[in-house]
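Subject: Protein entry, chain in single-letter code together with its fold tokens

Category: Structural biology, sequence-to-fold work with a learned token vocabulary.

Notation: Tokens come from a learned vocabulary of local backbone shapes, not from coordinates.

Start of record: The labelled sequence and token lines come straight after this line.
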Amino acid sequence: MPPPPALAASLSTLAAPAEPVTTAGDAQLVIAALLGIAAVVLLIAWAKVHPFLSLILGAAVLGVVASVAPDKMITSFTAGVGSTVGGVGLLIALGAMIGGLLAESGGADGIVGRIVNRVSGRALPWAMAGVAALIGLPLFFEVGVVLLVPIVLLVSMRTDVPLMKIGIPALAGLSVLHGLVPPHPGVLAGGDHRAAAGGADAGAGDRRADA
């Protein structure tokens, strides 16, 4: 039985390939990406420009080097920012507020005090990974990162340990929890998505078999 005309039109629209914003070759696109990343890093680390403004300027550099038309560059940028903010913007905003409350209320200071007093030396990165896993258990990855920022900074300042040596284990613990531990909402959402996709694939296979 053929699908209704409206549904068929919607399906054909979704199946149509997206129009490319540039005709640049692979080498030019790789160079554009590298220059865009370099621009962001230099603006943040050397020029001390705000990260959000640096990302905008880096995207502009990428678009110019990739020979993207100005109107298409603006459209692509606004669509990408809109989809990102619509997906995780609220989570990041709420996480930033909770992280600010954690820092101002002294909660982060108490957590850091317990970590520093009980753990030191080579065990400190492992302790940070465990703390990150514990804090991030009921949270999405983006919110967990925002909450961990004040804790990581305080631990680094109090122990005189390089920030990367503290921050990378914390991110590793949060990432492992986010991707592998079933109680985490990210894993459950991924499982539901795969189950739905599997069901859709099975239904499509059954329809093909019937045809």
Remarks:
- The chain has a mean pLDDT of 74.
- The longest helix spans residues 70-104.
- Residues 4 and 203 are 18 Å apart (CA to CA).
